Amino acid sequence: MHDGWETLPFFACGWYGENGEPCPETPPPTTITHHYSDTLGWETKEINTSEHSVDIAIALKKWLIEKIGYTYTLSEEEQKSLTGSHVEGVDIQLVRQPFMCRTRYYRRSWIRRLRRGEFHRDHNYAWAPFCGGDRDLTHIRYTVCDELMSRGTVIWDTYPNYEWAPAQPPCGGVPIQNPDPWEGKREKPCCDNLCQDPPAEPHPCCGCVVQQ
User: Fold this and answer.
1) Sign of CA dihedral 74, 75, 77, 79
2) Which pLDDT belongs to residue 62?
3) Strands (E), 129-182
4) Bridge pairing between strands 130-131 and 134-135
5) Which residues lie closer than 8 Å to 190 by C-beta, 6 or more apart?
6) What is the pLDDT of residues 156-205, one digit of tens each?
7) N or C: which end of the chain has fewer CB within 10 A?
8) What's the CA gap between 149 and 52, in Å, rounded?
9) Which residues touch 82 (CB under 8 Å, ≥6 apart)?
10) What is the model's pLDDT at position 126?
11) What is the DSSP code string of 168-204?
12) What is the pLDDT of residue 132?
């Protein structure tokens, strides 16, 4: 799962460093902090309200949580509830460093895990014909009945991470693929011939000459 792309603009776009002109100074990175949650939600239903039906529904919920790989501990009240959620919180920092000549893109991404399940109970019946007061035990019949007892769903949204879109050739990076992990998003040069091949003459549209 992921949010939409956020933009981090370039800090300079031009050709610098000739004739003693200094190159633009790289600005310090900025840090943003957000409070994010790791959330487990569940919903289990009693389909058949016979004896022990609540215990069966809770057992199904516990089984689904184990199968989904959840590792946090639920409170006693949460363990007994058929519908609810458990939330863990954390502050996550993102360090943003702008580049010269290229706009960068980043987004928040996380994993959603989902499990659905049902609890069925089988009933095995044995019966024999009964005619004229006598049981015909030589012709015993067997019947198996399936009974749906409970149905449940568990969804786990993990803590998010941040991912950055890569550069795109010819500026290094990763070509756009199909399917593409970044949905076609790439760093964007601030001008046309930034990474031109063969090199642009007399120089690319954006860059810096370092004086020796």
Assistant:
1) positive
2) 96
3) 130-131, 134-135, 141-157, 161-164
4) antiparallel
5) 10, 13, 101, 102, 103, 205, 206
6) 999 999 999 999 998 889 999 999 999 999 999 999 889 887 777 888 89
7) C
8) 10
9) 43, 44, 45, 46, 54, 57, 58, 61
10) 83
11) -TTSSS----SS-TTTT---EESSTTTT-SSPPSS--
12) 66
CA 53/CA 46 separation, integer angstroms: 6
| CA 210 to each of CA 20, 22, 97, 111, 206: distance values in angstroms, whole numbers, following the listed order | 10, 9, 21, 44, 13
Cut 0.70: pTM above it: yes
- At residue 5, the pLDDT reads 97
Q: By the 8 A CB rule, do 80 and 58 touch?
A: yes
- Alpha-carbon span 180 to 36, nearest angstrom: 27
| Contact (CB, 8 A) for 40 and 66 | no
Q: For the chain, which ranges sit under pLDDT 50?
A: none
3-state secondary structure of 69: coil
Q: Give the residue from 157, 152, 173, 158 showing the smallest Cα distance to 59.
A: 152
Check: CB of residue 144 under 8 Å from CB of residue 122.
yes
Please give the Cα distance from 200 to 67 (Å, whole number): 57
Which pLDDT score is estimated for 128? 78
Nearest residue to 144 (alpha-carbon basis) of 118, 119, 120: 120
Residues in the chain: 212
For the purposes of burial, counting CB atoms within 10 Å of the CB of 110, is it exposed (0-12), middle (13-18) or buried (19 or more)? middle
Beta bridge partners of 108: 162
